[in-house]
């Protein structure tokens, strides 16, 4: 569980080589603001002008007049009927700049995040992945020849873990290092869960803790005395390193089992939590519901001590408001109330990770909110020597 | 046919706004050197260690022991059997930096180029496209709000022309503007032409003229007196502008009809000509043949006057050597000798564009070459007032 950090010296690289320096923007910085994205994508919209997704994955519901379930721009993945055999194409693409310093783990995270969008639609058998790569023109040749194969290896091994392979892609040069990909599943209709069937009385389950961006930022601040001085009174260096490890572990973890269990426990809708944070994605999912419902979130499971950091920064991250960006976050699953506990328990049994009931589905106008004083769940509740979770 | 240039002043942008300035690298500059790519991709390879494609599209033949045609890393698109109905997934991805100044045309070119890889496998019904976009952080908000929708419009209209739609993608911010996408077709086996069946006596057909990179570069030199002075004795400004228009028109043109006619005329193999130039792609295609053949190229159809510029630059482009990069180039199709003329004639009849028999398939060791003094075919042979071709 505990993995050794990537150490540049192990590879005869300069001690101050940092993968995360191969991009000038951090966290949400690389995101196009939501309203701008909205305007940009207007040209791609179908006549019914649906909402948009998380900016990374601009897919959305198509006109309801279509006879078969079709999801276009606005949700996590598109779901498109194809010409053959009543089958559907479920696919998504995303690409990222480095947000952790370990190239192998960065490759895994990128792959897990791309797959997550397809898993959010209930599709668990991915037929193919393509990889999008860009070396950075700020890397030396030596750095490139060491770092890029590690990223590729992480991406490939994550794809294999997901039971799929990488059979194509593109590699170019860019100022910032880019890693991303495309995931494609060709599915029968019953392999897909169109995320629009939440009903009053359902509950919301989250399958990974929040706080990845806070953990990643805090870890970068260890090398930035100005920033570190602002939080060092509330957290130890060791706790930051542990939170960073937890964030990496969580981001590299596949949402495949969570997706697979959605079928067993009759999930009514799902999205994955990424760039727009828990609330942003909850709102987007709510907007696409068929019934007059709204989502109310009571609990926030957060990587241990990240809530403390967020408060010490004057809530600049928006973590407690549900707007802190996550990378490769958990599935936010809408489940029948009587199935939710069993769903969480099954994930725990199969993967050894907790999942949490975090909210309820009420009657409402297709919106989502977090209650005024949500309960913060520290994850894990207690440190166990030598173990991450 | 003749389209008005994009003029920044028409959109109240600064007169010196140039889309092509939103990347510091031109032409092949953004390509990872072939040997480096080779090393990088080793980690993705299957056991049989096949060759690699054009660097943009690193797909290739899988082990022959597989019962069904499977193409992985090394050719233009991957071809992968899926779980359902004996169907195959054919897909490709590519992304580009601006190489022309007209944003609408740039969107079309990117789309046409992405589709071209799928067409090269004979697949003509594309089920879905995803779009990869990055705004440039060097653009003002105003530039972004004007330019990006034009790029999107071009991409979308090209996809519609191809009979498909854009149902997803990602948009981020990057130092250089990026536009690209993913094309996916789910096909029956007889919709695909696995490009490995060239036999001695076949001929090679090319469906678009060469010289796009030379035309694009020469056009940029109009604003660079140092460079312009080097070629102005051999070409007029007007001829450069016309060649640029021809290059844009050619790059934005779909290879769909050429692909469709491959079935009618029993093509034995095909690739599309992009980053590694005519010879690079011919060599890659030759390497993947089942029989002991080699490709010998006798004729080079080139956008009018671009051969002259290339010579005036001391062949720096490698145009006459077949190594000049092309963007969204033509299909290089291997056809039975008795079918080739009819194939070219049919393209002319359906599209109004010429195609050319440029070489022959001989007995050999799976290589390709251009003869010592190839015949240069100026395209078009004569200028017609008010017409491009």
From TrEMBL, chains A, B:
<keyword id="KW-0418">Kinase</keyword>
<dbReference type="InterPro" id="IPR004536">
    <property type="entry name" value="SPS/SelD"/>
</dbReference>
<dbReference type="InterPro" id="IPR036676">
    <property type="entry name" value="PurM-like_C_sf"/>
</dbReference>
<keyword id="KW-0547">Nucleotide-binding</keyword>
<dbReference type="InterPro" id="IPR016188">
    <property type="entry name" value="PurM-like_N"/>
</dbReference>
<protein>
    <recommendedName>
        <fullName>Selenide, water dikinase</fullName>
    </recommendedName>
</protein>
<keyword id="KW-0067">ATP-binding</keyword>
<dbReference type="InterPro" id="IPR010918">
    <property type="entry name" value="PurM-like_C_dom"/>
</dbReference>
<feature type="domain" description="PurM-like N-terminal">
    <location>
        <begin position="76"/>
        <end position="184"/>
    </location>
</feature>
<keyword id="KW-0711">Selenium</keyword>
<dbReference type="Pfam" id="PF00586">
    <property type="entry name" value="AIRS"/>
</dbReference>
<dbReference type="GO" id="GO:0016260">
    <property type="term" value="P:selenocysteine biosynthetic process"/>
</dbReference>
<dbReference type="GO" id="GO:0005737">
    <property type="term" value="C:cytoplasm"/>
</dbReference>
<dbReference type="Pfam" id="PF02769">
    <property type="entry name" value="AIRS_C"/>
</dbReference>
<dbReference type="GO" id="GO:0005524">
    <property type="term" value="F:ATP binding"/>
</dbReference>
<feature type="domain" description="PurM-like C-terminal">
    <location>
        <begin position="200"/>
        <end position="368"/>
    </location>
</feature>
<dbReference type="InterPro" id="IPR036921">
    <property type="entry name" value="PurM-like_N_sf"/>
</dbReference>
<keyword id="KW-0808">Transferase</keyword>
<dbReference type="GO" id="GO:0004756">
    <property type="term" value="F:selenide, water dikinase activity"/>
</dbReference>
